[in-house]
Write a structure and sequence with these properties.
Blueprint (H helix, E strand, L loop, with lengths): L2 H4 L3 E3 L2 H10 L6 E6 L4 H16 L5 E6 L4 H6 L7 E6 L2 E7 L4 H9 L19 H14 L5 H12 L3 H9 L3 H4 L2 H14 L7 H10 L4 H13 L3 H14 L3 H16 L3 H15 L1
Parallel strand pairs: 1-3, 2-3
Antiparallel strand pairs: 2-4, 4-5
Helix pairs in contact: 6-7, 7-8, 7-10, 8-10, 10-14, 11-12, 12-13, 12-14, 13-14, 13-15
């Protein structure tokens, strides 16, 4: 690798230097691998943000750029089905990753879960948090500019779900091409939609909470309360409702509490939380 590349936080890799510059190098410094292409619209949005963060983190991680057109074997080896796709490699192993162009604030949150900026790093300005509605508008504009980018439609479906527009999200999900229908994010969204359907015509959160407080054995209310909490971002509280049913009325409504827990696990990306509640569920079942 040239001295110029060695002195920067961003570099290009291909098959011939991937093992040395990514796998081996990750034993000492985490490497963020960006799979991209020149024709990919979202890549043009994501790439500059990743490079900015690489400079901001001041060497806490290095950014490896993989042009999938020039390195098709690498893309195939990592099972890349849509771009941009980003993977974080630490200690020679894939530690985390995501697909699609995330807002800068979410990118920074992703990185901070794994690395901390080194001394001398730039102080990050306060981030404007993107609302779900803002995300929908941004993605719709990207689709208008690059309608051939099918992965943007998956991004739109996810944003619609975050905005509470389940019907619209389901319509976008149903229209995805076959190669994206099995994407991990699409599978997760499908599970979220299954849970959201349970809330059709259901009481609002305060009423459900009052019903459960008045009668802890109101399993129907407790079940819907768990779903509402889960979909509103209070995952642990929602899972606790399903566990309470499983503990006291395991067979209620054809083992619905167990089914709810399994569906919830499929929607969550917090591996530690899912593992903890899987063990709790197993202790009640076996």
């Amino acid at each position: 690798m040239s001295a110029t590349i060695a002195d920067t936080h961003v570099f290009d890799v291909r098959e011939d230097n991937f093992e040395a510059e990514v796998l081996q190098a990750s034993l000492t410094t985490p490497i963020l691998v960006d799979f991209w292409a020149t024709w990919c619209g979202p890549c043009k949005t994501l790439g500059p943000m990743l490079e900015k963060l690489a400079a901001e983190f001041n060497g806490a991680f290095r950014l490896a750029k993989v042009d999938v057109d020039k390195s098709q074997q690498l893309a195939a080896m990592f099972g890349i089905r849509s771009i941009p796709t980003v993977m974080l490699v630490k200690d020679g192993q894939i530690a985390d990753g995501f697909a699609g162009a995330l807002p800068e604030g979410q990118l920074r949150e992703f990185l901070l879960r794994h690395v901390q900026p080194l001394d001398g790093a730039e102080t990050a300005p306060a981030e404007v948090i993107e609302t779900p509605e803002d995300a929908i508008n941004r993605i719709q504009q990207a689709i208008a500019a690059a309608p051939e980018q099918a992965e943007l439609k998956l991004d739109l479906a996810l944003a619609l779900m975050r905005a509470g527009q389940a019907d619209a999200a389901e319509a976008e999900l149903a229209a995805l091409p076959a190669n994206l229908a099995t994407d991990a994010r699409a599978v997760r969204l499908r599970s979220q939609l299954d849970l959201a359907r349970a809330l059709k015509d259901a009481p609002l959160l305060p009423e459900l909470q009052q019903r459960v407080q008045a009668d802890g054995s109101d399993w129907a209310a407790r079940d819907l309360l768990g779903v509402r909490l889960l979909l509103e971002g209070e995952a642990e509280a929602g899972l606790d409702q399903f566990l309470a049913i499983l503990e006291k009325a395991r067979d209620w409504n054809d083992d619905q509490a167990k089914k709810r827990l399994l569906a919830a696990f499929a929607t969550l990306d917090d591996a530690e939380l899912v593992g903890r509640y899987r063990r709790k569920m197993a202790s009640l079942l076996f």
